[in-house]
Amino acid sequence: MRRDVPRLLTTLLIVSLVVVSLTAGAGVRPAAGQENAADGTGIDSCTTISSPGRYTLTGDIRNVTVGTCLRITANDVTLDGRGHRVDGVRAFGTSGVLVTGGSNVTVRNVGATDWDDGIRFVGTRNARVAETTTARNRVGLSLVSFRDSEVVDNVARSNAVAGVFLVGSSSNNTLRNTTVNDNALIGIQLVEATRNTVVGTVARGNEFGVALLGANRNTVRGSVATGNHIAGLWLSAASDNRIRNNRVSNRFYGIYLADGARNNTIESNVARENSVGIRLRSSDRNAILDNRLVNSRDAGILLISSDRNRLVGNRGTGNRRGIAVSSSSDGNTRSNNSVE
Length: 340
What we know:
By secondary structure, this protein is mainly beta. The protein contains one helix and 40 strands.
């Protein structure tokens, strides 16, 4: 069942997603914008936005060879793509849209294709990212040290590593109604991010739908992860997270806790037609509560080398095995479960 793949991927992903140099794209030449009272400043080529205000794309920008096409360095900026696309040439270290520092920056309704990072925020607070589409990048939407912000109604598909990447000291953000399909490894990935809410995600055709790697005190709820190749939701070395009211149906695991995932609450999820509905490996002191496990090809709930977990009120039918606990697990408690 490729059980060792997640452990290897944990290391590989964190290494592969190290923050690229913020100096990529230095020397980008400003384009001459056209002033319009209603729409703000029109942009028709790569530029640096260094003054507050409203900016709109007037058309697609294609086959860009500079390191960064649209760079935002000012506070209080709105960039409205009006459905237009910023397109690169898939060069390493590049970004279609790069926001560095500052606060109160909105990027909306823009596409970014064929970059290292399609749209990238670094060190930004009180930002808003809405209605963007990122495709064929290494990472679609990359959010680094991103705080107190809102990410709403975005699509990230067919990216080479991850659709959405929330990393480092990123905290207190809400990711709402994100669609992440057919990304090579992970749909939405949180690495060492805390106190974020991921809600209303649709994740299909990735290796992992949503992954929390060393990420603590986050909430993933009201999401659908189907047809992912390994797991719908994956927690590795992640603690004190709450995973609730999600629907998962994937090739191997619906929800997978591994490598020291501790004190997480897995509650009121529906796991249907996975190989294993909820799987724990080397994960202790978690609460598995009131989940529904249906038609699991191997087991509804499987514990391997996992201690002092609490399984209460889980139910389901049509599983090959109900709740299976390996002899290497110890001190787990079960009550009021009905997993046939």
